[in-house]
Specification:
The chain folds into two domains: 166 residues, Rossmann fold (3-Layer(aba) Sandwich); 180 residues, Up-down Bundle (Dehydroquinate synthase-like, alpha domain), CATH 1.20.1090.10. Helix content is 49%, strand content 10%. The protein is α/β, with parallel strands linked by helices and 364 residues long.
Length: 364
């Protein structure tokens, strides 16, 4: 066995009623900046919870996070937290608000341009402490330092991640998934599954990440096999835990070509990130099979064990379609060109050569 390293520095609280830990976690702070979308805090009851239990705090709401947060939104959020003299940031919502909260906490204490700070190896000033509270079961962002930000001018996704942009705490309570619609729940579960799968086959994988990846895949696949009834708390718990494990996995392994291709569908066609991954998953599996990736046999065995029918769940999300039904031949080529410029393509378990990737994508 070769030498390897691993770490998972986020102090996480998982399970129903985990939210009650927030009362203790916020004790040291007076001014709290909450980063979220426009409606999630009200829809889930989180705003009511904060109003009821934190009357002694100065609660500030930056509820302007869009899906796939832009550089402009991050800079505005950093300015908001800085001018309000926030002492702690709470990221509440799906992957977009969680990712945004980590970047906003950095810009709150480092008043610089986005690309200027992005290029700095180490932040001059420590970011504000961050507490992440996920409301979807997709990104696992609460467990790593990744912050995916969209450059709307270049139609590109950038990972703003530094050694000190980890959340300090994660409060992972399945209660907040109860307000999710079925399609979104399934789409985010596919995102979590692909995190585990890609992390497992990544050239950066190690025994620590593999153990989490296999467990995450098993939990998610078994939940789908049982029907993935979104009215059952067991479904929510399983998908959410699989997502959390996936977040730890990609902290060590990053993602691969599958995610890079998916970014294009999200950027250009506004397809939900998890749904984009679900559309691309059969193609990626075929690429691995034809390339003789040994670990793909493990993935195939797990899917066979649980009778995992990708097409069925694509249909549940409204996207049981081929790539050629979404993109023209020219757009498919543009997608591959874009994906091959992304760093995560380098971690794929096969050589992602353009002609090979194109041939598989245009095959069906």
């Amino acid at each position: 066995m070769q030498q390897f390293s691993f770490h998972s520095p986020v102090h996480a609280f998982f399970g129903f009623n985990a939210i009650d830990n927030l009362k203790t976690l916020l004790e040291p702070y007076k001014t709290v900046c909450i980063v979220c979308g426009a409606t999630s805090a009200d829809k889930t009851g989180f705003r009511k919870y904060m109003d009821e239990y934190f009357k002694d705090k100065n609660i500030l709401w930056f509820n302007r996070i869009e899906e796939n947060p832009s550089i402009n939104t991050i800079l505005k959020g950093g300015k908001f937290a800085r001018e309000c003299k926030a002492e702690v940031v709470i990221g509440f919502g799906g992957g977009s608000p969680l990712d945004a909260s980590k970047a906003i906490a950095a810009f709150a204490t480092n008043n610089k341009g986005f690309y200027e700070l992005l290029t700095e190896e180490k932040l001059e000033k420590e970011p504000l402490p961050v507490v992440c509270i996920p409301t979807t079961c997709g990104t696992g962002s609460e467990m790593n330092n990744y912050s995916i930000v969209t450059d709307t001018e270049k139609l590109d996704k950038i990972n703003f991640a530094k050694a000190n942009t980890f959340p300090k705490y994660a409060v992972i309570d399945p209660v907040f998934l109860r307000s999710l619609n079925r399609k979104t729940l399934y789409a985010t579960a596919f995102d979590a599954f692909t995190h585990c799968l890609e992390g497992f086959v990544s050239v950066r994988s190690n025994p620590f990440s593999d153990s989490h990846a296999i467990t995450g895949m098993e939990i998610i696949l078994s939940t789908f096999a049982e029907g993935a009834d979104t009215t059952k708390d067991e479904t929510l718990v399983n998908f959410l835990y699989g997502s959390t494990l996936g977040g730890i996995v990609i902290l060590h392994t990053a993602t691969t070509l599958l995610h890079a291709l998916g970014y294009y569908l999200t950027n250009e066609k506004k397809i939900h990130h998890g749904t984009a991954n679900a559309i691309l998953l059969p193609y990626y599996l075929e690429m691995m099979r034809e390339s003789g990736v040994e670990k793909c046999m493990v993935v195939d065995a797990l899917m066979e064990k649980y009778g995992f029918n990708i097409s069925r769940w694509q249909d549940e999300m409204g996207y049981d379609v081929t790539i050629k039904e979404i993109l023209s031949d020219e757009e498919i080529e543009a997608m591959v060109d874009y994906a091959l410029t992304k760093k995560n393509s380098e971690w794929s378990p096969f050589a992602p050569e353009k002609d090979f990737v194109l041939e598989i994508l245009k095959r069906y």
